[in-house]
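ingest -> validate -> predict -> emit
validate: passed (alphabet ok, no gaps, 108 aa)
predict: started
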Amino acid sequence: MQVTVPKNRREEETARTGGEEYRTGFLKNELKVKDLQTALDLPDQPEVIECFDISHLSGTSMVGSMVQFRNGVPDKKNYRRFKIRTIEGIDDFASIAEIVKTAISPPC
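emit:
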């Protein structure tokens, strides 16, 4: 590890603002999770958040996706894609129900 000391005001300002940006970026996700806890009146902060979405091309080739956040940070290794198998036509609500059911069902 190398430690450097700022030699002039410009370097000192850069070092200070870099530290502030680091702290802000580091705490940003925690603050978002606290805001969500407050907005939803949850007793505890959510550790895992899963979000679902449906996509299609003019009613054909319907697919769903799930993204996951852990402690406010994207957990990309747990992102998932789903084929919509049982829904005919454009029905986003039924499609969401299908992929949520698939996502929470234990693997066969």
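The CA atoms of residues 58 and 90 lie 8 Å apart.
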